[in-house]
Amino acid sequence: MSDSSRPRRHSVWKRLRRHRLAVLSLVIFAVLTIVCLAAPLIAPYEFDAIDLDSVRQSPSAAHLMGTDDLGRDLLTRVLYGGRVSILIGLLAALIGTGLGAAIGSVAGYFGGRLEGLLMRLTDIAFAIPTLPLLIVLASYTQAAVVSMALIIAFLSWMTTARVVRGEVLSIKEMTYVEAARGLGAGHTRILGRHILPNVVGPILVGATLAVGNAIILESSLSFLGLGVQPPVPTWGNLLMDAQATMATKPWLTVFPGLAILLVVLAVNFIGDGLQDALDPTARDI
Amino acid sequence: MTRPADAPVLEVRDLVTRFHTEGGIVHAVSGISYSLAQGEALALVGESGSGKTVAALSVLGLVPHPGVVEGGEALLHGRDLLDLTDRAWRDVRGRQVAMIFQDPLTSLNPVLTIGRQMTEILRHHLDLPREAANRRAAELLERVGIPDAISRLSDYPHQLSGGQRQRVMIAIALSCEPDVLIADEPTTALDVTVQAQIVELVKELRRDLGMAVLWITHDLALVAGLVDRVAVMYAGRIVEIAPVDRLFSQPRHPYTRGLLRSMPSIDEAPGRRLESIEGAPPDLTQDFSSCPFAPRCPLAEDRCDREIPPLLSTGEGSASACWFPQSVRP
């Protein structure tokens, strides 16, 4: 009994393991990520290898997911696309949620003018039309993964900020916060140690939703020609490329779409499971 | 500056706390004074809204917005707490003056283990390393009568009963061996047998550790065996302060007498109706220029409507704020 926080971590993992769907999602997510990361090693073709003899083929043994207008292997492109999309999704969710949580908790905890300022800032960010801002931002930045993730994060922190502020507003009135103050805890300690652990649930849910949103937002950017530039594939630009031929060559839409769906669903279930596992009052079955 | 050995640990003088609400100024505490000697226990007794909790929170600098401490002093070992900076306050709270709150069910953080919540204060105030803090926390839990202390450290609050949680709160409050323990109705949310256990525990700890206790309650009977002196509050003022036996045997203020008559007693004839004090609690948005109790007082005369009676000694360590202090048994 040397560390009173160890049992907690232990039991979180134990509870998460009981959440079958979350475990399955964790496995799916891990496998997808690893496979995508290993794309250069396992992909059957080069991602930009054009083969004009075999354009627009439906799935076959040679091309498991078929080929596109330029005869490029879709499986290869989906694998390579996943590298970019998953990375952008995770990074943007991390930054956006972190920013939102920080702004929301400071606003909720300190209140007064600071809260007014921060929440009006949030309102303004909400009110800014996304598209013109994106175009301006993208013209000043290079379409690299990090800058894409940053742009998406700056467009999506507001919901988290509002939710966290609301939670903090109610939790800071709890007796245990007053008790902590009565025992000599300062603002940082109260906010970090006593309030934020109670808001982990909503933050986590926000973050998992943000992963999916970021992947989808990235595709809109790619569609506008502001995202990651072709020929480098992302799930977003694969989908956008396939738009015109959705009816005649459905595989071009179905496979990238399925990939996005799988990742977003998996992340959401993981978030769900984590939320339950992190709540110590949930019953140990 | 040297201080005499019998100087009070905590001395509150003319404390005034007001709440500036939209509906006007609420005079929650209007100039109360009391002192606590080392190891002494004082009860602040009064009905809801009499200002007893605010009086205690003022001493810790924890008056919630929009309340402001507007006057007076709170001297801890001769140093005025009301002048402290935020940082200095934090070193006093929990270390020299600790507080236990009313509802043990909500005063522990539901998502942190008992161990985390106990070691936090030890590591913060006493700079204990993790190992030592854990050992000390287990000792403290044992001290307040929680069996199997070491394994309890990794429990969450919801795994403990209400009484156990209040014991944990007491253990946390005691962890830095404060000079003054402020207990704000710590037994209200507990059932009667557990109440008695908690009172007994505090009594025992007070004797062993020699700390002063300020016990806030509305229940005169509960504190009878626990405290040395009782201060009765009404409308933000102390209307009577006396050694506990004397307060019960010779209450001077008509409000105190009313309170005592409204208490059930085992000696009295069955079927007797409990008396209540006529009238309604005072409206604290007015700044009194007459005795606040006069409208409900059976003995009120003209003078009571003109002047506020000061707290005047009635002998033997007692004082009463009444123009016509009674000397006969109620």
Report on the structure:
Chain A is an all-alpha fold and 285 residues long. Chain A has twelve helices and no strands. In chain A, helix 4 (74-110) packs across helix 7. The radius of gyration of chain A is 22 Å and the shape is globular. With 330 residues, chain B is of the alpha/beta class. Chain B has helices at residues 52-60, 86-92, 114-126, 130-143, 149-152, 162-174, 192-209, 220-223, 244-249, 254-261, 302-306, and strands at 10-21, 24-36, 41-45, 67-76, 79-80, 97-100, 180-184, 212-217, 229-234, 237-243, 312-315, 318-320. In chain B, helix 3 (114-126) crosses helix 4 (130-143), helix 4 packs across helix 6 and helix 6 (162-174) runs parallel beside helix 7 (192-209). The longest helix of chain B is centred in the middle third of the chain and has 18 residues, at 192-209. Chain B is globular. The termini of chain B are far apart. In chain B, 47% of the residues are buried. The mean pLDDT of chain B is 86. The chains are: A mainly alpha (285), B alpha/beta (330). The A-B interface holds A 1-5, 7-8, 174-176, 178-186, 189, 193-194, 197-198, 200, 278-281 and B 60, 62, 86-87, 89-95, 98-99, 101-103, 106-116, 119-121, 124-125, 130-131, 134, 137-138, 150-151, 153-154, 156, 158, 169, 172-173.
